Amino acid sequence: MSELFDRIDALVASRSALPLPAERKRLRQAHGLTLDEVASALDVRRATVSGWEAGRTEPRPPEREAYARLLAKLAELYPAGSNAAAPVEGTLVSRTVAGAPAPACAVQAQPGPADPAIEAAAVTATGHPPAPAPTPVPAPAHTPGPVPAPAATPTPGAPVPAPASLPAAAAPAAMPEAPAPAAASRPAPASGPLPSSSRRPSTGPSTSSSRRSGARKTAPATTLAKTSATTSATISAPAPASGPDPRFENGPLAVIDVDTHGTVSAYCARGLVLDVPATSIPSLVDWTLKEARLGAPKLAGPGKDADPLLVLTQTALERYGLPVALTQDERLAGRLPEDHNVVKQLARAQWKLTKRGFGPWARIYRPATGPERACVQLCIPSWNALDTRHWAHAGQLPPAELARVLGVYASRVMTPRGSTAVTGLELMTALHPPTRASAPDADGKRHPEHNPGSLGKDPVDCAPCEAPDGHPLLKDLPRFHLRGPQEKLFEEAYDWARPMTDAECTLRHLVGIDVNMAFAAGANGLTVGLGAPTYLKTPVFDPKLPGSWLVDLSHVDLSHVKAGKQWVELDGSLLPSPFTPKGDRPEGPAWYATPTVAYAVELGYDVTPIEAYVRHENGRYLDSWYQRLRDAYLATMSDLGIDADLPPQDFLTAIDGHQTRDRELAIVVSAVKATVKGGLGKLRERPRGEGWRPGEPWRALARPTWRPDIRAAVISRTRINLHRKIVKHAAFTGQYPIAVLSDCVVYASNGPSPLDFLPHHDGKPLPGGFKLGINPGLVKPEGTQSVLWGEEVRERFNAPELNLARYIKDGTITDTDNGE
User: When you count CB atoms within 10 A of the terminal residue's CB, does the N or C end of the chain come out lower?
Assistant: First the structure.
């Protein structure tokens, strides 16, 4: 009987009542508890508690019962609506003006937890949350200045006065993604008149039929509300915990659209919609800089604030005299011709364009005359600004939904500066600005100086072995000279496959697993060169010194290697070599990046470099870049119902079909991953456009971020990380991969799930091997096909070593991509 009672107690605990997410945060902060303290008490991660308070996830037993007990105790000490604790920053507090309704999105403290199912049903039916019971809420104790007196009851027919301004805060996750009224959710300036884009509606009858510049309105709730399949909470672009910067209170960007009545509107990232009075592109730029309050604060101390971004829809292009699509010549040039009417309008208004001209990502600016920049960026989706490979169908989304997608990306990564590749590279610079202000000199003046840890403001030459073909360093080489591994550093991702063994052919399935954010994980903690290379002859290898090493690794035998501290015997013929992208065993000396040579030492073999180009000035330049992109990826995946702490089986259930739960957030995930790969690819950007000849410099070489050595080091470490897991898995299970492509590995298995061949003991994965999960470096299922499918495909193309990892996701293969 006691076992029966225990099961009943566990069942009750699994549904312990919890207050709404905003109330959870209020109670914790009212008692002065930090996220770390709560996480430590419950034996969970800090991010897990943060997800509970944001409404992205819900606690599960046994933590749920303990968490509910904690909140119940705090609720006794700090009851809702009492003066026991002042509202803290980050908590929305509503004030009701006499005779006027409370703002629809303001949150009022309730005496007890609401039923999430009832509240979700109310939101679905009406587009708004149910009106809370009126509860008097005191003004925040920390609010400066006197509390405004209640307005008099308006006369019949007169407009209702707007509620007073409140401290800015991010809306709780359980609220629908409808925008907050301007006066209730945006901080007003400390002094001085409000700009026209922030003015409150007049309290008396309007005396003019014209639309006021930048007047606020709300987008339809049916357009903005997005409900996750796993939770009733809706996801919107988050504002910083301390509230948006007053200079950029309307977010980083806006989508400009024109409705059927000819009204121009700016759909902002946080759901707000502004009226746009501008009638030309020059006046639109002026309005953006003077009234729209768009932009984003800098990401690092010495950096610069992000310029506002305007996304022009097709109707906006027509309104402002721009073509809806570029001609063939304009597409090839990547810009409008200099004699286009809009380009001439900008010139007459003394606005300038960058060297890219007026193209899909145009930057319009005036030279800075002080610390403030005067620059606006345009994004034109119908000119292919949003590459469908990375942004999917984002360019065809309605304005409010496009603003949401780009707004989430901008808040979690950065305001797009161009393609995802360009943005990935710009993020590196934004996190490590090249210069900073010096200490005051004798005259009290500050001067720009090198910012330690950055790449500086001047480019440095790469080593000859790191230079791609056609580089000016190689101009003296004979024409058509093909450089071999002794002349060229060739660190690339895996593209390897082998025929299946007889034993593998008796199994039923081929299962592909994909490493999450593999190249980002390869950048994490990696020491890279910051300055110019130094040439060394017959050096002693130093695994802590980044650079390129000419060394012979052909003696490394994969059938007898060290795995940790023990030597293990493997079937080396079934393993790819870790030293070449094609998995072939090297035949002699070749150039390798530091991580590759260090791995040879780790496998238990001596190395004797012949020569090297090393960088004594070095650091972990990519750490903050990795962390920001990792956080963006994990936060967005959590919004899709995939938490970092899910057990393996729950993770597989959650990852299945996650892209269809919220297709817009799935676009953000795709863009974040493309930002990683594209940003690293830009470190060795090749010449583009016509007119370039081998041996001549190209534009990218003038950037301090043109660093092929950093790209090579990241790819090298990513490939080595994958090979290390493959060796661990083979040593423990005797299973070997069939194919490897970049970050995807295919194994033969008796079952269709990764759990059918990934070893687990007491619910824990093999240490150092593959682990299911959403964190960067962990793996998720890529696809499953039958062994028969694999054999038929290889037989069809007469290619026993066709890389099946390329097609494992959906099994589709065409005649044009066989083996390439």
Answer: N
The pTM assigned to this predicted structure is 0.74
Per-residue DSSP letters for 79-106?
-TTSSSSPPPTT-----PPTTSPPPTT-
Q: E-strand spans in 412-487?
A: 435-437, 448-450
Per-residue model confidence as pLDDT tens digits over 514-528: 999 999 999 999 999
Q: How many CA atoms lie within 13 A of 257 on its CB side?
A: 19
CB 92 within 8 A of CB 171: yes
Least Cα distance to 186 among 64, 259, 120, 268 occurs for: 268
Q: Which DSSP symbol is given to 234?
A: B
- 190 DSSP 8-state letter: S
Closest CA to 187 of 176, 198, 201: 198
Q: Is 548 helix (H, G, I), strand (E, B) or coil?
A: strand
Quote the Cα angle for 615-620-626, to 5°. Answer: 135
Strands 253-258 and 309-312: parallel
Residue pair 597/543 in contact (Cβ under 8 Å)? The answer is yes
Please enumerate in sequence order all residues whose Cβ is within 8 A of that of 35, keeping only pairs 6 or more positions apart, or say none.
28, 46, 49, 50, 53
State the residue for tokens 């729950």.
Answer: 650
Low-confidence ranges of the chain (pLDDT < 70): 1-16, 81-244, 370-371, 690, 763, 814-820
Instruction: Return the structure tokens found at 759.
Output: 């070893």
In this prediction, residue 318 carries a pLDDT of 96
- Residues in a beta bridge with 216: 274
- Residue pair 464/451 in contact by the 8 Å Cβ criterion: no
Taking the CA atoms of residue 593, residue 594, residue 600 and residue 603 in that order, the dihedral angle to the nearest 10 degrees is -130
Q: Are 510 and 753 a contacting pair, CB within 8 Å?
A: no
Residue 257 in tokens: 């659209």
Gap between the Cα atoms of 643 and 632, Å rounded: 13
Chain centroid to CA 187: how far?
Answer: 27
Bridge partners of 618?
Answer: 529
Residue 311 in contact with residue 379, Cβ under 8 Å? Answer: yes
| Distances from the Cα of 670 to the Cα of 588, 649, 689, 779, angstroms | 40, 24, 27, 16
Domains of the chain and CATH, by start: 2-77 (1.10.260), 244-416 (no CATH)
Residues sharing a CB contact under 8 Å with residue 454, sequence separation 6 or more, in sequence order: 429, 432, 433, 434, 435, 530, 621
Give the closest residue to 460 by CA, choosing from 593, 616, 329, 276.
Answer: 616
